[in-house]
Amino acid sequence: MYTNKAVQEWVEEMAKLTKPDDIVWIDGSEEEKKRLEEEAVSTGELTELNQKELPGCLLHRTAVNDVARVEHRTFICTKDKEDAGPTNNWMDPKEAYGKLGKLFDGSMKGRTMYVIPYLMGPVGSPFSKVGIELTDSIYVVLNMRIMTRMGKVAMDTLGNSNDFVKGLHSKAQLDEENRYICHFPEDNTIWSVNSGYGGNVLLGKKCFALRIASYMGKQEGWMAEHMLILGVEDPNGNVSYIAGAFPSACGKTNLAMLIPPAYAKGYKVWTVGDDIAWMRIGEDGRLWAVNPEAGFFGVAPGTSMKSNPNAMLTTRKNTIFTNVVQTPDNTVWWEGIGVDPPQEGIDWKGNPWTPESGEKGAHPNSRFTAPANQCPSISPEWENPEGVPISAILFGGRRARVAPLVYQSFDWEHGVFVGATMGSETTAAATGKLGVVRRDPMAMLPFCGYNMGDYFGHWLEMGKKLTHPPLIFNVNWFRTDDNDNFLWPGFGENFRVLKWILARCNGEVDALESPIGYLPKVEDIELEGIEDKVSIDRLSQLLELDEDAWKDEIKSQEEFFEKFDRLPKEIKGQLENLKDRFGF
Ligand code: GTP
Ligand code: SPV
Ligand code: MN
Description:
A hairpin with a 5-residue loop joins strand 13 and strand 14 (239-245). The protein is built from 15 helices and 31 strands. It folds into three domains: 5-45 and 70-220, Phosphoenolpyruvate Carboxykinase, domain 1 (3-Layer(aba) Sandwich); 225-291 and 382-582, Phosphoenolpyruvate Carboxykinase, domain 3 (Alpha-Beta Complex); 296-372, Phosphoenolpyruvate Carboxykinase, domain 2, CATH 2.170.8.10.
């Protein structure tokens, strides 16, 4: 059905390696979706949920050892090791092709290979790029159908060109010991084997739209970032756009779908994207961003009608739930959904479960895959081929003590330093120890497809070319008191912080200069309606700088930067300036 020669030849070559019984070319049609769903339900790969309550919704359980991204098994395979840099795992491309080639050899025997053409970015946008994923998983096809513009539209965009990202995925035996997610940025290629978990296998997402795309962006003068994009509409109908980079499971989806508190009459927040932003410099010298994805692959636990009604409403139909609890009436439940658990259910492992068992019913990294256009707050501009102009960039993470609720960088270069020194406590989105602080520059530590020293350099270069750069801020919703309680109510109340940020962008409010940047005056963060939860004292506490904590923080930043041979001198200079301002 498709006539592109380069695609055909590559598919033939990969089929020779993986030896599937059949090859199915995906067109993205409704009939195809129906057929694949039926097949996956018949084999138990997917379970049809209560079609009255959750029309078009399906449930999937991954293998118990396959529930999150595996960063220690994720590799950047560049010819020169230095080009992968000190923060990435590196493998020589020849070695990687050899090693994974053996694992792929015959891995699709007895199975069907699906050829998925997909488009990252809106149809007809100069930002957009084509990828093709070969996979032996129907779950992957159906997820890619939601997360990307999949099928004919992508092939039509590609035409006769050979400019596409080649992705090969096989579940193989789901063997943890032989699980590899390898990226070959110099060959536009991704090979992923022995996993069935989203972030490892939906190759358009982290693998292409961040790791490969960040490398492309460096070559071509644009940026691929782990950022949400939202628009704030004021009562006069003016919309300002904000992009925000927070590490995995640190609040991007929630902020992107925020509903302003009652006091902020006439304001509205629009969702453009919840995870990834591709950004270019416009002719007007501003930074313009698109969301390359078409769906949300969101964290389920903690999502409720109270914390994120827009996400709940988005997932009422045509959604694939992964690793949540299946209830007796064949709907879904997870910790923090805001309704009582069923008396009994089936947990994410597929076992009978009761709330009394003391075990979590849903995996902490259980997810929903839902079409973006079902989101009640989806921006009218979300598929604008030109993107949206960004007024402010936010960096943020989970910091119990050091980072104040919000501060503004002095300028772009200092903002790049603020991003480069981001740290956050680890979450369930990746395997490994939870809750330990690790440095995570721009929330890109697991997703940068090249040397992060060069990446910082690229940010600095972009700043020089932007005649109207966005202002750069740092936010922290996760500061705690001595009893580990969150000091800030978060979620919808984060709007109060966005409002200060936009007031800064519009030059409407002044600020206090501190060693780390501009801090809000307490009276400039509006507390109307939450005075009972956040007193002035508490707000002051949220904005406080603890000098001892900052001393340790700077030491940790310094140690991190010592790993880099290619650290731009500007970053070093910024660190020295910070120490001077503190008098350390
Ligand atoms: P990825 O999809 O992994 O990139 O995650 P994300 O950055 O989109 O995170 P998400 O919005 O899904 O939030 C992850 C977790 O953080 C959820 O359990 C939320 O309940 C919690 N969370 C989000 N926003 C806030 C907040 O403002 N305050 C607090 N305390 N928790 C929050
Ligand atoms: C993240 O971990 O940042 C996610 C989910 O958004 S995944 O697709 O697994 O990367
Ligand atoms: Mn993410």
